[in-house]
What does this fold into?
Amino acid sequence: MSPFQIVLLTAAVTAALIIPFMLWRSRQARRRASQDVVRTMQRIANERTESQTILSSLDVGIIAYGSDDRLLASNPVAIDMFGIIPDTLPAFLDRFGTHNGMRAAFYLGSETIARELSMGERYLRLVCQHHSLGGGRGNFGGHIITVQDFSDVKRQEERRKAFVANVSHELKTPLTTVKSYTETLLDWGINEKDREAIRADIERIYEDSLRMEDLIADLLLLSSLDSSGAPLNAHLLDLALSVRQVSDRLLDQARAKQIEIELFAMTRETAVFADKNAVERILTNLITNAIRYTGEGGRIQVYIGSVVDDIYVKVIDNGIGIAQMELENIFERFYRVDKTGSRQFGGTGLGLPIALELARMHRGRIVAESEMGAGSQFTLFLPGAGHLLKTTLIDLSRKEKPADAITKAAAAAIRDWAKEDEGDGALLDVHALLDIIDEKVDNSVTIIVSN
Ligand code: ADP
It folds into this structure.
């Protein structure tokens, strides 16, 4: 074999061995590279999903604009607040930053700008901040806008302001009368007015001081209800008996206007588990209002009945009535249908809100229905004693804690009855306690109201 042939053969053998190896190596490298690309893409996709999940789970709106002021990202909360988010930061500032000065502050070069924005019923707080997004390299600098809905806080603040303004106004009116009548009497009235006129002035002063006293008492009660620290002194109570007692107490007031109060019992199940004073306060408010807003010679009917697990007291009058559009407002503090006139009836405008709050504390409610000029109907619903006590007992047997003041009181009463009955020290089971509840509830109904 010639040297040339040997070289050729060696080259051919080497090529035959090396080329497949090289091909294999390059295929391997390509596969590794493509695996790297896939992995990187997966990592980017994962990071994107992660950051998107984080953005979506926030309860603040987030909008990010890049260094070129183009929209980079936004979360669902922001979209819910603004609808379509402008594509660029200048467009965003034009739309949402003109009236509140955010746009001006931005072009004046402020790094962090906080402003408020009202959008229909919503109050939003916007904070626009410059952020360096490129790990300090600066070339990725952009802006992040965070948006918080503070409508509830704002509304609470407005309600508080209105409440303070109302209280001041309600106190100022009688105070002005007291002041001006006393001034007149001191200046010249005592010397120049006759005895009758002086007496009338003093009566006026007295009446207005009583009004202020009533208002302050109502305000103190409301504030104790609001702080919800007031425990309920609840017992088994015959609601029919309370209705009779309250209407008897208001008989003189009704007779002064030749108004009749009729009572009707539609059920024998009239036991409730409630705070006597609170229930009487609710009934007094409903019947007093019926008397107040019914003309001379009118008629008031009070029904006591039961429906499903509730006991109700329905107070029906044939008085001035309330327009439909006013009905939803009458449970608001200081709301009066007749802004000028009804003060003359002596109310504080706090009667119904207090009554409703007390009813709710007993897991009850008040429903108002009315027709202008024809009369009104206010119904107090309270859970029947048997139902309330039995559901509380079941909760107790499941080791559930009483959720509110009334079930706390019911749980305490059940424990007391259980102790009374555990003569031999044996623990009573749920069935024995249910029997005790039935017996106690039956015994608590004392009268049947009927005319
Ligand atoms: P007030 O102390 O002024 O009576 P309430 O809170 O008890 O305050 O009632 C709020 C308003 O609801 C009253 O000012 C009155 O306009 C209206 N209202 C309540 N009860 C009746 C009723 N039976 N008939 C007509 N209007 C009523």
